[in-house]
Amino acid sequence: MKVLVTGGAGYIGSTTCKALEEAGHTPVVLDSLLTGPLVFVKDRIFYEGDIADRDLLTRVFTEHPDIEATIHMAARIIVPESVEQPYEYYRDNVAKSLELFDQLVALGKPRVLFSSSASLYALKDTFEVTEEDALAPSSPYARTKLMMEMILQDLARATDLRAIILRYFNPIGSDPDLESGIYAKEPSHIVGQLVLTARGLRDSFTITGVDHPTRDGTGIRDYIHVWDLARAHVRAIERFDDVLAAVDEPSTVINIGTGDGVTVRELVTAFENVYGAKLPVTEAPPRPGDTVGAYANVDKADALLQWRSELTIEDALDSALKWGARRHEILGYE
């Protein structure tokens, strides 16, 4: 199967392209390279450009009429930046995606697998959330994801578009062969910060928020190995029509996580165990847009995708450390 992957030069996008290839499929990458590095594209079919460029989309599907579905990953994703630059987030994530979805319908290519986010969920006392739980996005970034979900659901009811929406929890780690990983020079991602600290590139790791109503006061998350997340996309693409037939709806939402909640302090301890040494740690207030967090109930993913995570948090942290040690070979910077 041939699959269009928007944002396929990014961290999750490039890893998903690799997972597709290993499953016998062919990814076609569309990426503006606003953030994703060209080196992550490798020798894949690649179009550099904007997801809202209708002429470019027409060209992609004219040259590859056998594309059967689109995995839409292209987006701005940094929560504090979204607070500072809401216009750019609503423009790039929402307005441009609307153009993409409409053009896919016009081209007769209606299957969309969409990358959403667990940051949509409202705070829940037990922290475990199902797809039916209340939503309360607390940042412009999260609100863009909710808007795109609503757009997809409305379009699916009114047009031929069909959508599977994957609500990601917190991807960490690298691909199995260490060919791609976190690429930002100053990653906001928690594991990226831990790796920089371990490599002596930061004086200390900062825990942002220590008064949350969790078992140790720090935020709680569901940390999933990026390779498991990539595999979930492959399964969703392969079972796309069967999934929607099973729910008897033109769209559906599925949590993608491990099903376990880990606090920031627990993650630091796990990282130190894998690294083999203690890290200097400081504490600070929550950043703008930060939330207490949640972890996934993954029963729906198990039932519909016949998928569950297989790799451990230690596997993910080990791969992140190994990627941190060699990413300068691929990216040219630490």
Compute the separation of the termini in Å.
36 Å
> Residue share in helices?
40-55%
DSSP summary: helix tally: 11
Strand order of the largest sheet: 3-2-1-4-5-7-12
- Beta content comes to 15-25%
What characteristic shape results from the CA principal axes?
globular
Poorly predicted residue ranges: none
Radius of gyration: 19 Å
Average pLDDT figure: 96
Helix and strand composition category: alpha/beta
Order of helices and strands: EHEEHEHHEEHEEHEEEHHEEHEEHH
Biggest sheet character: 7 strands, parallel
Number of strands: 15
Brief write-up:
By secondary structure, the protein is an alpha/beta fold. It has eleven helices and 15 strands. The mean pLDDT is 96.
List the helices and strands and how they pair.
Blueprint: E1 2-6, H1 11-22, E2 26-31, E3 45-48, H2 54-63, E4 67-72, H3 79-84, H4 86-106, E5 111-117, E6 128-129, H5 140-158, E7 162-168, E8 170-172, H6 190-198, E9 205-208, E10 220-221, E11 223-225, H7 226-238, H8 240-247, E12 251-256, E13 262-263, H9 264-275, E14 281-284, E15 295-296, H10 299-305, H11 313-331
Parallel strand pairs: 1-2, 1-4, 2-3, 4-5, 5-7, 6-15, 7-12, 8-11, 9-14
Antiparallel strand pairs: 10-13
Task: List the defining traits of the structure above.
334 residues, two-stranded parallel sheet, 15 strands, 41% helix
Q: Could you walk me through the main structural features you see in this protein, from its secondary elements to its overall organization?
A:
With 334 residues, the chain is α/β, with parallel strands linked by helices. 41% of the residues lie in helices and 19% in strands. The chain contains eleven helices and 15 strands. The protein has helices at residues 11-22, 54-63, 79-84, 86-106, 140-158, 190-198, 226-238, 240-247, 264-275, 299-305, 313-331, and strands at residues 2-6, 26-31, 45-48, 67-72, 111-117, 128-129, 162-168, 170-172, 205-208, 220-221, 223-225, 251-256, 262-263, 281-284, 295-296. The strands form five sheets. The chain has a seven-stranded parallel sheet, sandwiched between helices. Strands 6-15 form a two-stranded parallel sheet. Strand 1 (2-6), helix 1 (11-22) and strand 2 form a beta-alpha-beta unit. Helix 1 (11-22) packs across helix 7. The longest helix has 21 residues, at 86-106. It is globular, with a radius of gyration of 19 Å. The two termini are 36 Å apart.
